[in-house]
Amino acid sequence: MLAYSLRRLGGAIPTLFVVMTVSFFMMRLAPGGPFDRERMLAPAVEANIKKAYNLDQPLVVQYGLYLSKALKGDLGPSFKYQDYTVVELISSGFPVSFEIGIAAIVLAVIAGGGLGIFAALRQNSGVDHAVMATAMIGITVPNFVMAPVMTLILGVYLRLLPVGGYGGGSLRNLILPTVALALPPVAYIARLTRASMIEVLRSNYIRTARAKGLPGRLVVGRHALRAAFLPVVSYLGPAIAGIITGSVVIETIFGIPGIGRYFVQGALNRDYMLVMGVVIFYGALIILLNLLVDLAYGLLDPKIRYD
User: Fold this and answer.
1) CB proximity list for 241: less than 8 A, separation 6 or greater
2) For domain 94-269+292-300, which CATH number applies: 1.10.3720.10, 1.10.645.10, 2.60.120.460, 3.10.310.10?
3) Distance, first Cα to last Cα, the chain
4) Taking every pair of C-alpha atoms in the chain, what is the biggest distance, in angstroms?
5) Which residues contact 177 (CB under 8 A, 6 or more apart)?
6) Residue 118 phi, psi (nearest 5)
7) Which residues pair with 77 in a beta bridge?
8) Can you name the residues that pair with 85 across neighbouring β-strands?
9) Which pLDDT tens digit goes with each residue over 114-165?
10) Each residue of 43-62: pLDDT tens digit?
């Protein structure tokens, strides 16, 4: 397993390099620049600022300088958040996104998995159709629509929960963004679990377990559930990466100081260094989580070997 992990990580380096390269040149090709709003500065002052950030150099030279620093772990300073480096901003935003993301993914696995199993055990019943219809609504209605609706109902009309802010990690402040962030994964996991569970329940070894007289609870929990969750585990790799790094929409709506909010502000302000740093961090996290998902397959299915 160790050799397999090292091979996967080694093969991910070119992928991360391509992501970094494409992102670098796409950011530079976008119209506008980090100091376009500061045209009141004297031309000599503006020239000095660009020189300080190497923006006066040819694009290829800028890329070479950035790449040489990035290989050393230096993602550069932020253009807009003065006196802060990109690494410091990511370090401050990631724990917030991680806290909300972990809570959202746990909620999604429990709620989505439970609904999927419940629907599969009652296939083609009214309950099954109701669960799948609700899941389809969760997939088709984006969270940037559900979040304001939840804020309006639970925060403004009923005054049950705060409508925004982090509140130092207060539970009341985390409920709305966590639920809003978890709704799409809940719907996807419910559908994946239902489809996979139905297929597993029709397999020969499940029929054998039932023929031996095992209770239905043991058949589902001990034999069917592990195999049925394999497609869910595949989905969880990129899903966890996307949720932990923070939904840019959810963090912006609720004023959460996470990575997603930094990414949005960096893109709007043409903060090249900040956007590049978040993209590199996000890409590396996806690669790592996909590797962990593949390794988790071996724990769920004993037939899988990585030797």
Assistant:
1) 282, 285, 286, 289
2) 1.10.3720.10
3) 6
4) 86
5) 100, 147, 250, 251, 253, 254, 256
6) -60, -45
7) 85
8) 77
9) 888 888 888 888 888 888 888 888 888 887 888 888 888 888 888 888 887 7
10) 777 677 777 777 778 888 88
